[in-house]
Amino acid sequence: MVSPSTLSPCSTFLFPTRYLKHSSPSPPFQRKRLLSLTVTYLQKADSDAPSLPPKVQTFWQWLRDEGVVSAKTPARPAVVPEGLGLVALRDLSRNEVVLEVPKRFWINPDAVAASEIGSVCGELKPWVSVALYLIREKLKNDSPWRHYLDILPESTDSTIFWSEEELAELQGTQLLSTTLSVKEYVQNEFQKVEEEIISPHKQLFPSPITLDDFFWAFGILRSRAFSRLRGQNLVLIPLADLINHSPNITTEDHAWEIKGAAGLFSWDSLFSLRTPVSLKAGEQVMIQYDVNKSNADLALDYGFIESKADRNAFTLTLEISESDPFFGDKLDIAESNGLGETAYFDVVWNSPLPPAMLQYLRLVALEGTDAFLLESIFRNSVWGHLDLPVSRANEELICRVVRDACKTALSGYHTTIQEDEKLKGENLNPRLKIAVGIREGEKKVLQQIDEIFKGRESELDQLEYYQERRLKDLGLSGEQGEIIFWEPK
User: Fold this and answer.
1) Nearby residues of 210 by Cβ (< 8 Å), 6 or more positions away
2) Is 148 annotated in the active site?
3) Residues 128-175 pLDDT 10s
4) How far is the C-alpha of 287 from the C-alpha of 252, rounded, in Å?
5) More confident residue, 19 or 155
6) Is 289 one of the annotated binding-site residues?
7) What's the per-residue H, E or C state across 423-479?
8) Which of 35-39, 92-96, 450-454, 465-469 has the lowest mean pLDDT?
9) 3-state class (DSSP) for residue 380
10) pLDDT digit string, tens, across residues 197-226
11) From CA 7, how far away is CA 364, in angstroms rounded?
12) pLDDT at residue 251 in the model
């Protein structure tokens, strides 16, 4: 029997705190959400009403002058509850093209490479090079992107822009630890780029660039850049990035595409944006940002959450300890099945446990007499065996460790679910509303996980374990589990 200290909630076996998933050298960037304006009335769709902010009117006129939009363009910028958005000028059918933006108006690593700083940015991470480019252009009065940069927000409600007092409302949440890790990551990237690029090439960066500038650019890319485009992993597309998110649109399919040459004598590709639903004139054109993001992801990237319960999630981080006497064998089995020394499992509210989570738990907890499954003769079949309970001791251990970890995580919050539910009925500012929703959602998922493993604990005596299954396979056990003895004739 493994001692409690070997597989405790505070050990490397299971971490209730979410590790940063976006701290890799090339963090993924998703689409945008603009929160630059506080005006909340809807701009009239059939006129150039003066209520549209002057800088937005100038931006629209610039696009007209450049031939990006025309009188036939079926949507235009408008003031909406989210800030700025796109509003239909006429009735639109599902999958109808709303706008098309040529490649010469895209801001991506190719645009950086063709600029004055391209020669010194070639070895940088793509997002860092684009961030530097954005900052430099913003500091230039004569930037060709001036009219676009003027309508970009200075910040959003993303948690990376929250004050210490606001972040304190996230006490105990995985979102807090993820946010702090992201901020540390951005700070480290800024220090490197300042030492390696900005300082040695001051002739290319005549205006001082601060950490706040770098955070601004990171926030813009995090919230507004399109990804998963053909041949494009990171691209800002002016006008298209005004489109807002709707929780009522449940598919990401066919919302946009990259088209080939814009015309017979043009080699310029087009970004084509479509409406995923039918619209009436005056209604806002919206899309689904990402059906798989949790509320914590939405809060970090865009600065909003949804009320849908299935956006609530908690990430269990499991790890094979290097001190485990069977570390090498367990790691080999994990890697053979698409996992590794550390594995992350997102548990979503009111959904089954993630595939392979129980198998990985049982693998990590294998020891003592159960360790025979790690022998080479079982190497090709052990993962299948782990899909079912191995032994009572193994199953009891994983239940206890997971439940202890849930209790530890729940003790880290400074409010109860009941207190959060009461607060949700009050008129909260947007950031406090996010904090309350996040911590309530995480606690509910933790309680759900605890209930699942509590239920498994109550069934330990009724479960069928490996040895019993093996005896049945050999015909040595009856249907009720009794051992059959064969007497010689």
Assistant:
1) none
2) no
3) 999 999 999 999 999 999 999 999 999 999 999 999 999 999 999 999
4) 7
5) 155
6) yes
7) HHCCCCCHHHHHHHHHHHHHHHHHHHHHHHHHHHHHCCCCCCCHHHHHHHHCCCECC
8) 35-39
9) coil
10) 999 999 999 999 999 999 999 999 999 998
11) 9
12) 81
Percentage of residues in the chain with pLDDT exceeding 70? 84
Distances (CA, A) of 199 to 117, 162, 191, 328, 443: 13, 29, 10, 46, 46
Q: Is 308 helix (H, G, I), strand (E, B) or coil?
A: coil
For the sheet with 244-245, list strands across it.
75-80, 83-88, 284-287, 244-245
The answer to whether 83 is a known ligand-binding residue is: yes
- 388, two tokens: 């079912």
Torsion of CA 295, 297, 303, 304, to 10 degrees: -20
179-190: per-residue pLDDT in tens? 999 999 999 999
Give the Cα separation of 428 and 436 in Å (integer).
Answer: 9
Residue 379 counted as an annotated binding residue: no
Cα radius of gyration (the chain):
27
Q: Which one of 19, 41, 185, 289 is the catalytic residue?
A: 289
Q: Where are the alpha helices (DSSP H) in 126-173?
A: 126-139, 146-149, 164-167
End-to-end distance of the chain based on CA atoms, in angstroms? 41
Would you say residue 486 has pLDDT above 60? no
For residue 344, give the H/E element and its range: strand 342-348
For residues 256-261, give the mean pLDDT.
77
92 and 98 Cβ atoms separated by less than 8 Å: yes
Residue 260: its pLDDT value, please? 73
How many Å apart are CA 132 and CA 213, to the nearest integer?
Answer: 9
Is residue 24 scored above 80 in pLDDT? no
Q: Is 84 annotated as a binding residue?
A: yes
Structure tokens at 177: 């630890």
Measured CA to CA in angstroms, residue 377 lies from 131, 206, 333 at distances of 53, 66, 12
Can you give the pLDDT at residue 267? 55
- For residue 235, give the DSSP letter: B
- CA 431 – CA 12 distance, rounded (Å): 33
CA–CA distance, 366 with 345 (Å, rounded to integer):
19
How big is the chain, counted in residues? Answer: 489
Q: Which domains are seen in the chain, by residue range? A: 14-20+305-473 (3.90.1420.10), 54-287 (3.90.1410.10)
